[in-house]
Structures are given as C-alpha cells and as structure tokens.
Specification:
Distance between the termini: 80 Å
Strand order of the largest sheet: 3-2-4-6-5-7
Radius of gyration: 26 Å
Oligomer: single chain
Number of strands: 8
Helix content: 40-55%
Largest sheet: 6 strands, mixed
C-alpha cells in the first residue's frame, strides 16, 4: 500500500489529512477528514473568554500613551507598590490595545488564530525535519490537544512563548542538520527573541533551550563552539527592551518566588487528580517512543532528549509548564515512535485502527459541534457569572460605580483588581490585582489572600489600609464577614449573584440589589470606552 504521507501528488496539508484518512475504513474522503480535524481545532479555539491579565496590560498601555512614556511607577493602587514597576508583558498590552482599537474584539481572535496556526506549522516542521511521517505526527497530536487547553484563553502573552519554543526547536534542528541557511535561521531567531523579550517573560525559555542543546552537543562530541557567539548575541538581544538589565533582575526574582496561592504554579500533587490525569497519561505515553528509539538505534537517536526531560520535570513541579512540555514532545516524539513500528508493523496498526475509525470520526464530530453550539466562536466573552474553568468579573459592581460617578479607594482581590482598574481608573484606586510580584511586595499579596480568606487578623488589615469600600465575590470566606460588618456601620451598597460591594461608615451610597437580573459583560463596548476623568474633574 502506498504511503499517503509521501505521495508527491498531494501537497500540504492534504498529505497530512490523507495520512490520517488511511487509518479509517474506505472510502473516507480526504476532505471529510480535513473537515473533522479543522472542526475539532475550531472547537478548541472557540473558547474566547477574555483572560484577566488583558485588563492590567491594556491599562498600562493606555496610561503610558496618555503620559507619552512607559510608566515605571504604578498609579493604580493605594497600597504600597514596588519601584520601579517593571511589567514584562508590556508589549503584549500595547499590541492588544492597538488591535482592539483598530479592529475591535475580532482583532484579538485573529491574533490567537494566527499564533496557533504558526505554532502548528512550527511543530509539524520540526517533526518533519527530524524525519517523522505525517501519520505519526497527526496520531500523536491528539493526546497533545488534550493537555494544551491551559494556554488557549484569549489571548495570553504565553502564546508567544509557546510559539517561541517551537521556533527555537526548529532552528536547533536546522543547526543540527547543518543546513546551508542556518545563519539566516539564527538571525531570524534573534529577531524573534527581541520581540519575544518585550511580549512575555517566558522568553527565558529560548536561551535555556539553546543552552541545553549546547550541552547535549558537547556530550555527544558534536560541534558546539559556534553556539557560544549565538548565546552571547541572544543575551544582547534580550537587553533590547525599555527596562534594560532591570528586566532580567525582575525575572530572576519572579522565577525564584514561591506562589502558594496561584493555581497554575502548583505542583501536580497539590491538584485534584482529574486535573492532571490527561498529563499523566501523556507522560506515561511519552516514555514509549524514546525507549523504542534506544532499543533500535541506541542513545544517538535521542536528539533533543535534554529539553524533553527538563520541561517534563518542570511540568511536574509547575502546572503552567505542561503546554510547553506537550509542544516539545510533539516536535521530538514522532520520529522516536517510528522506531517501534517497522513498515509491516505500521500496516498492522492501520488494520487494527480501521474498525474504530468511523466511531472516532463520529465522536470527534459530535463533540466539536457541541463545543461550537455552547459558545459564540466569533465573540469575546466577559463572564459576569462563574463558569467551569473561568472566573467571573465584577461587571455589575463596576457598572454601579461608573454610573454613580463614585471616587473611592477600593479593596479588591487578586483576580478582580485588573478589571476594576481598566474601567474605573483614575476615579477608583485598588488594593491588589493580578500583576503580583511585578507591582506589589510579596507580603502585600499574602495580606490580600489572608484578608479574603477571612484569616485571623483580617480586621487589622482593613484598619491599616483604610479602604472606602470592599469588593468581594460571594464564594470567598470574607463575604459572610462583610454582612456582619453592617452592625458596625458598614453598608451593603451593591449585591448580585456573584459580588458584594460594601462601603465604610459615613458614605451615603445608593443601595442596589441585582440578584434577580442576568448580567452580561460586553468586552468590545467597555474596552472602547474612554478613560474616566479624575475625581477632581467630577462636575
């Protein structure tokens, strides 16, 4: 039987679709397989719940443009902040603000689709350069999709790190193969590294992977000295940013900081088993290809194993590294897996898969259509009600403060501050938001989490910070304590199904109860709204 992955009459991507269709019962048209695969990918990408980091990133961009310079002193919080304030995702905020102002919400969706497409192309290119067949690449892509959803929100700066890792691996493969155009590949990588440095702090992955590649080349007694000037150029490239060397100091502090309250920095053993089961299955599956490669060709076949081991260990220690591990595994594992399948064994595997082919296609088709039916794939959502996997935003409380033209010092939780600062600054200043160590001293973050957990001493925090009002999600431990504060003169000014807003004694705020209403957050409407004037401009 001919190999559809090598059929010269089919071009990319039809060779890939034909290779997958060959595993299903005949006749399965290539266009049908293409349709189902694209539908599956579309269902994965159609979840356009806006990420909370967008609001503080775009707020920084907006106020910096108003000031005519990039702000290095935080203007948003009434609590202590660090100085200078170094935001390692500042470029992403400017990019998103530009896209939203010029194209609307669809601009962010298009950016997300572009990055995911480039990521897929880079992963396939790496696997193909290493000699893998289309059948193997596509087959191993399915378990990767199961663990990749962590980075699929709209649109995290982390996506640039995903793309940067895949592109770095592609350049390293070109270098390992001694490509005649490897100097051009290295130059292109350095250009991307400059952009990467100003978009996301995860750019450190690039030089780290380069270093691991150099060590592996040294141990294998292959040429590696040419990587030394590349490493020096990479360091110089990362200095091309508004903060200079201070960005590196800030990131070194961030990488060594313990984050006991941030879920995506948890180790796997602190999470419910349902959360990490797909990754554990992928980790178990990932052992098979390198073992097969060692058995058939020895250790020399395991090019890139250092990166896989490094990212695998980091994924066990920190949840947010799982997508990075999945990307590296998809790039490297297909070639290793083929050592376990001779042509006769591959033909047998196809015969084994064919009875399940139709069932698999139907399952994927139904699941993808269900995903589309439950979402609006061309709209960005600002959740006013809690949903699985997504936090809700204080949509109603912000509308209340905006409509009343209220100026205040507002106590906010880590998850809620960015949304408030974007819509209500400078009238409303906040106590905390998702910038964590970039803007706040570590003890302030601990204080914030202790307050909203109603730990002993939370009243002392209120007395020390002297907020005018407190915004609290109804599910947090502080919420019932706020109701008890009414006996001390605090007033419950606003409440809905998700949030409570209480003001201190002496403030005469109107009382609003919206618990019977359906609140809808309109991202494009609010994101295009101009910044509010300061309290001194209030008529």
């Amino acid at each position: 039987m001919s190999d559809p992955g090598r059929n010269p009459q089919l071009g990319f991507p039809w060779r890939a679709f034909a290779a997958l269709a060959d595993c299903f019962p005949r006749p399965v048209p290539v266009w049908m397989t293409a349709f189902v695969l694209l539908l599956l990918l579309g269902a994965q990408l159609s979840n356009h719940a806006i990420d909370l980091d967008h609001f503080h990133q775009m707020a920084l961009a907006r106020e910096s443009l108003n000031a005519g310079r990039l702000l290095i002193e935080d203007p948003y919080a009434f609590t202590p902040t660090v100085s200078p304030f170094i935001h390692h995702e500042w470029g992403h905020g400017f990019l998103c603000l530009f896209l939203v102002r010029e194209l609307g919400a669809i601009g962010l969706i298009l950016l997300k689709l572009l990055l995911i497409t480039l990521l897929a192309v880079c992963c396939c290119a790496v696997a193909r350069v290493r000699g893998a067949k289309w059948q193997t690449v596509i087959l191993l892509a399915f378990p990767v999709l199961c663990v990749f959803s962590l980075g699929m929100t709209t649109v995290r700066a982390q996506l640039f790190t995903f793309l940067g890792l895949a592109f770095t691996l592609l350049v390293l493969e070109k270098d390992r193969a001694r490509s005649p155009r490897r100097l051009l590949w290295w130059f292109t990588w350095l250009v991307y590294l400059v952009l990467w440095t100003n978009l996301h702090g995860g750019f450190v992955i690039g030089p780290a992977v380069l270093g691991l590649h150099g060590i592996e080349q040294l141990l294998r007694r292959r040429p590696f000295l040419h990587l030394l000037p590349v490493g020096a150029a990479a360091f110089l490239a990362t200095l091309i940013n508004p903060y200079g060397i201070e960005l590196h100091r800030c990131l070194l502090h961030a990488l060594t900081l313990d984050r006991p309250h941030i879920r995506e920095w948890y180790p796997l053993w602190k999470l419910p088993w349902q959360t990490y089961l797909p990754f554990i299955l992928l980790l178990a599956l990932s052992v098979i290809p390198p073992l097969a490669a060692v058995r058939r060709a020895g250790l020399s076949a395991l090019d890139g194993i250092a990166v896989i081991v490094f990212l695998g260990l980091e994924s066990v220690l920190h949840l947010r590294f799982i997508p990075l591990y999945a990307i590296a595994w998809l790039c490297c594992a297909p070639r290793w897996a083929e050592y376990a399948l001779s042509p006769d064994r591959w033909a047998g595997a196809r015969r084994l898969l064919r009875p399940w082919g139709v069932a698999a296609l139907v399952f994927v088709l139904v699941g993808s259509l269900t995903g589309f039916a439950n979402r609006r794939p061309f709209e960005i959502s600002v959740a006013a009600m809690s949903r699985k996997g997504h936090a809700s935003y204080p949509v109603g409380a912000v509308e209340y403060l905006r409509a009343g033209r209220i100026s205040c010092r507002l106590m906010t939780h880590y998850n809620d501050g960015a949304y408030v600062m974007w819509h209500l600054y400078p009238r409303v200043t906040i106590s905390m938001d998702g910038r964590y160590e970039a803007a706040y001293p570590p003890q302030l973050a601990e204080e914030n989490f202790a307050l909203y957990s109603a730990f002993p001493g939370w009243r002392d925090t209120l007395a020390a910070r002297e907020p005018d009002a407190i915004l609290c999600h109804v599910t947090r431990a502080l919420a019932p304590e706020l109701l008890r504060l009414e006996a001390e003169g605090w007033c419950r000014a606003y409440i809905d199904h998700e949030f409570i807003l209480c003001c201190r004694p002496g403030l005469d705020w109107p009382i609003v109860d919206r618990r019977g209403e359906t609140l809808i957050g309109d991202f494009e409407k609010h994101v295009r709204a101009p910044a509010l004037p300061g309290w001194h401009d209030r008529p």
